Amino acid sequence: MNWTDLQQRAYVPYSNTPSACVIESNTGKVYAGVRIENASFPLTITEYQAGIFGCLSEGEIPSRLYIPPAHPNVPQVWINAYSLEVIRTEELKFAAFADIVLEEPVSFPSVLRELQSKCRIQESNFPVSCLLEIEPGKFISGVNIELSDWQLGLCAERIALAKAVAMGFNEALSIHITAAKGDFISPCGACRQVLVEHMPYKTMYLYHPDATLSEHTPAEFLPAFFNGKSITT
Ligand code: THU
After folding, report:
1. Residues lining ligand 1, judged by CB closer than 6 Å?
2. Taking the CB of residue 62, how many other CB atoms lie within 10 A of it?
3. Is the pTM above the cut of 0.90?
4. Is 157 a catalytic residue?
5. pLDDT tens string for the chain (233 positions)?
6. Which residue in 11, 122, 21, 18 sits closest to 67, CA to CA?
């Protein structure tokens, strides 16, 4: 893997400015992060969120952040939050990124519940987990991750999508989502806007706390959605 190949995984149809970073955990596991723009500016997922949260969502602690030589300076907030060592390097010398692809679970609700041990929810105490289907029967997990700066956190759904795109999977097939509390599991407005850009008519399986399951699509949950394609075509 070199920077050019990794940067090509970024989803930047609006600015055409691809960005990537690599996170190494304190046990030496390596995670990719790429920028994922959204037609709605502030919903853009940065390469830092993608890489750092991808690492944390796998239960690993980020330790080093690698960027290419011409990359802008890393915002101090990310360096401070996880005491990261920033390394500018031309070459990426890793054998492989950590394997984050999961087989289809026998029981979605129980695997989703187990995943919630990886949530970092010190502010809300509201655990959310999901499994994004990236190829038939293959999944990438997401859990919600918070910082004391609330604005920097990211929902489970967007973390799963960021992990998938950074690993080169661009065709999400479905998403299975649960939360431990509440009456009706319902992706937030920001997640709806991001999911509608990547998988408007794919199924969202919602596992409600009363053990019922309902099926919807991002488009159904965001009527008359703003279509990013109107900008790029
Ligand atoms: N959250 C999700 O992970 N997904 C959603 O769709 C709704 C909200 C998280 C974000 C935050 O960590 C907590 O739930 C409360 O908003």
Report:
1. 121, 124, 126, 128, 144, 146, 153, 155-157, 187-188, 191
2. 25
3. yes
4. yes
5. 899 999 999 999 999 999 999 999 999 999 999 999 999 999 999 999 999 999 999 999 999 999 999 999 999 999 999 999 999 999 999 989 999 999 999 999 999 999 999 999 999 999 999 999 999 999 999 999 999 999 999 999 999 999 999 999 999 999 999 999 888 999 999 999 999 999 999 999 999 999 999 999 999 999 999 988 888 88
6. 21
Catalytic residue among 47, 157, 215, 220: 157
User: Which atom, in ligand 1's list, is nearest to the CA of 186?
Assistant: 6
Cα separation, 88 vs 86, in Å, equals 7
Q: How far is the CA of 119 from the centre of ligand 1 (A)?
A: 10
- Residue located nearest, by CA, to atom 14 of ligand 1: 126
Query: Which residue's CA is the closest to the ligand 1 atom numbered 12?
Result: 144
Joined tokens for residue 112:
């989703």
Domains and CATH numbers, the chain: 3-88 (3.40.140.10), 101-221 (3.40.140.10)
Residue 28: φ, ψ to 5°: 90, 10
